[in-house]
Specification:
With 338 residues, the protein is an alpha/beta fold. The relative contact order is 0.12. Helix content is 32%, strand content 27%. α6 crosses α7 and α8 packs across α9. The radius of gyration is 21 Å and the shape is globular.
Length: 338
């Protein structure tokens, strides 16, 4: 609708030149793969450090758990990072989350393509996302297939259906992560031979919040209900540029102005993405904010990302401020406020 007209056409893509790597002596990987190097910090009050250490050691190898009752630093190698992350998020608030696929790194060093053994799961997750950074984040949280797409470049019904049919489960949770993709996702649920439940996430921050509510031990219906309920626990700020002059709810917008949306509604306009983010944040009660996660787009300069984090930390002194690389096109910043 209106937002799509405001955004105009998607950015052109450019092909990167091939990079050649030296090929070291081949090292055979374990049959189950190398797993994932998973790191994060658990923040909270009266955290049970010893209990966390014991559980993390049980769930992986090369575990390092240090800290006190207010912050615990975790490093572990595991084949199920989403299980570890799910446990940790039940203990406290997570920050500085990082997940690296060690099997992928190994195969790149060996000059091979990544080969993962086929498996069957009782429940799978498919999600839509724009940007390689967001794709990696979703995969680290347990998403089985990420369909490329987003604002002004929505995936087709066929694209999403193919992803649903490809995952190794007859029960599938589907996260559209965009208001314009929800109807397409619902059509996929009707067309698929599998049991598909759509969790109607309207943004990537909502989709990520839903994934933190995912319970591996629960069935399809229970997870669909819990994840849908979690959507209301996060507010989403999206920043992009207007392609023509207009006026929205008394707000005058000039062509090429930076515009800021709060939960899909345009509420601010300005000259720079950073000032617009701060302007939108002023509409949110700082007393109700625990965590602000900034997902930087492909075109957001590194220096400006850091400066924005510093400014927001002053604006919300009691909140945890995190910076992640979403690498999304068209949107310099997507911000999750919880």
């Amino acid at each position: 609708g209106f937002l799509k007209r405001m955004l105009g056409e998607g950015l052109a893509t450019f092909e990167r030149p091939a990079t050649q790597h030296a090929r070291p002596k081949e090292v055979l990987a374990p049959s189950e793969g190398w797993g994932y190097c998973t790191e994060f910090i658990i923040n909270g009050e009266q955290l049970p450090v010893d209990d966390v250490r014991n559980e993390i050691q049980r769930q992986g190898e090369s575990a390092l758990v240090v800290g006190d009752d207010s912050a615990i630093k975790v490093h572990v190698h595991t084949h199920e990072p989403a299980v570890v992350i799910g446990y940790a998020s039940s203990v406290g608030r997570l920050s500085r989350l990082k997940v690296d696929d060690m099997s992928s790194q190994h195969h790149r060093l060996q000059g091979e393509s990544v080969r993962r053994p086929a498996s069957t799961k009782h429940l799978a997750v498919v999600a839509v996302a724009s940007g390689d950074g967001f794709r990696r984040i979703l995969e680290s949280l347990g998403v089985d297939s990420v369909v490329g797409g987003g604002q002004s470049m929505n995936p087709s019904t066929e694209d999403i259906l193919a992803a649903v049919e490809s995952v190794p489960s007859s029960d599938v949770l589907l996260l559209p992560n965009n208001g314009n993709v929800i109807m397409t996702a619902q059509q996929v649920a009707e067309l698929s031979k599998k049991r598909v439940r759509v969790v109607p996430s309207r943004s990537l921050p909502q989709g990520i919040a839903a994934l933190f509510a995912f319970d591996f031990s629960a069935n399809l219906e229970a997870n669909a209900n819990a994840m849908s309920h979690a959507l209301g626990q996060v507010q989403t700020i999206e920043v992009t540029r207007a392609v023509r002059a207009t006026e929205v709810d008394g707000l005058k917008i000039a062509e090429n102005d930076v515009i800021g949306l709060l939960n899909d509604r345009i509420v601010a306009a300005g000259a720079s993405p950073e000032t617009v983010v701060q302007s939108v944040l002023k509409r949110i009660d700082a007393g109700n904010v625990d965590t602000i996660t900034i997902y930087a787009g492909a075109d957001a300069p590194e220096t400006e990302r850091e400066a924005l984090c510093t400014a927001i930390a002053k604006q919300f002194p009691k909140a945890s401020i995190e910076l992640q690389s979403g690498e999304q096109a068209l949107y310099p910043y997507v911000v999750a406020v919880e």
